Amino acid sequence: MIKRIKVKKLLQAENDKNQVLVKGWVRTKRASKGFSFLEVNDGSCLKNVQIVVDSTVSNYSEVEKLTTGSAVSVSGLLVESIGGGQKWEIKAESVEILHLAPDTFPLQKKRHTDEFLRTIAHLRPRTNKYGATFRIRSELSHAVHQFFREHNFYYIHTPILTGSDCEGAGELFRVTTFDLNNIPKSNNKIDYQNDFFGKEANLTVSGQLSAEMFALALGDVYTFGPTFRAENSNTARHAAEFWMIEPEMAFCDLTQNIALAESLLKYLIHHILDHCDEDIELFSSFVDKQLRSTLTAIMESEFIKITYAEAIEILSKTKNRFEFPVEFGKDLQSEHERYLTETLFQKPVVIYNYPKQIKPFYMRLNDDNQTVAAMDVLVPRIGEIIGGSQREERLHVLETRMIENYLSLEDYWWYLDSRRFGSVPHSGFGLGFERLMMLITGISNIRDVIPFPRTPKNIEF
User: CA 20 to 30 Å from 325, out of 117, 152, 390, 417?
Assistant: First the structure.
């Protein structure tokens, strides 16, 4: 019995005259007198394998009916290709038609817009661009785990369902088993005591709080999984469901935290350039001509480090006109971030020591009592890609910050315990996986780097 071989491996073969079995989908078919030429792709790589089928094949009349999108199983001989464009081709000895696709198959031999492909997200992985996108996403996921394993981190599975609001922003998806047509209330408020968990439950916006608990036991840990934000935003940079890489390190200050963030970003870019060259070349050719140079510059440069106050001063003095005003005490906007990374410094920029009023409660208060030990890593084209901080390890300071943010100390009793029993300085950050994908592929819309995007008014597929 001939073992199936992936197209990627087959195209790397060193010898011909081998008997091979390939299964995949027909990308194109062209006919000549007594011959049919099939371009077949199985998703393992960007390239197709050409299959030559002549009239001696027993079901040749059926092969002639093959359409784009049809699924086939082909066995035959690997031979040197007479035509140009490929080293090898398969001289078919048998062709089994697994499924004949109708002529209405929406992916034809032409370029489709991203907007159209979002309407058929279940089929878009069969296109060159999206096949490459999700092969890179797979390899990038592997590289994340490899990096942390090499740095002796432990992988922690943190809850998706939570009673906590890590960011304190309240943009949470509620989770309930109540009949929405008959929600029990007490004093005009929802009575969660009769709900599944006996209290209000949400989808998590971050695994950080849980990861902190394990960092204060195991040392260095990370979590990598889906998070959710009920923010009614339809921008190209926001989604309701997205993945986050979140390391937490005990005995680690802000400087060490920044160093790890820089190291991780460079490692992941280097890994993809090494392992996904063919797919990256597609994006360099058709999506962003400057992609390779941008990624190489990030990988090889020393990141600029400036305080928030310094960033505000720089932006205030520039002659560049911004849509959003620059003002101390306000978050930087994407246009400000891109000016710093693309126009002024032309490399990644780390901004640290933000005003406490614009950052979450758990970030360590600096000695000036006005700023916190927070940091953001900004990169060209994307803006903010990493956000992190040194966490507040002092119990009394943390309690004060929580009260200032109107958070219940009772609800977070377990989090406060971590500062009550053996508290130590510790730090961490969150790296948005989809924004990382946008950086690495040059794709400008977050909807196109995640298999089935969840955005306002969109939960198809």
Answer: 390
Burial class (CB within 10 angstroms; exposed 0-12, middle 13-18, buried 19+) of 401: buried
Q: Does residue 118 belong to any structural domain of this protein?
A: no
- Asked whether residue 112 is assigned to any structural domain, the reply reads no
Cα pseudo-dihedral 229, 429, 387, 254, rounded to 10: 150
pLDDT at 170 over 70: no
431 in a structural domain: yes
pTM, two decimals, is: 0.94
Residues 6+ apart with CB under 8 A from 137: 437, 449
Domain span holding position 310? 124-448
pLDDT band at 320 (very low <50, low <70, confident <90, very high): confident
Element (H, E) at 444: none
Whether the CB-CB separation of 426 and 390 falls below 8 Å is answered with yes
**For the chain, what percentages of helix, strand and coil (3-state, to nearest 5) are there?**
30, 25, 40
Query: What mean pLDDT is predicted for residues 161-188?
Result: 86
The pLDDT of residue 168 is 60
**Cα–Cα distance measured from residue 69 to residue 60, given in angstroms and rounded to the nearest whole number:** 18
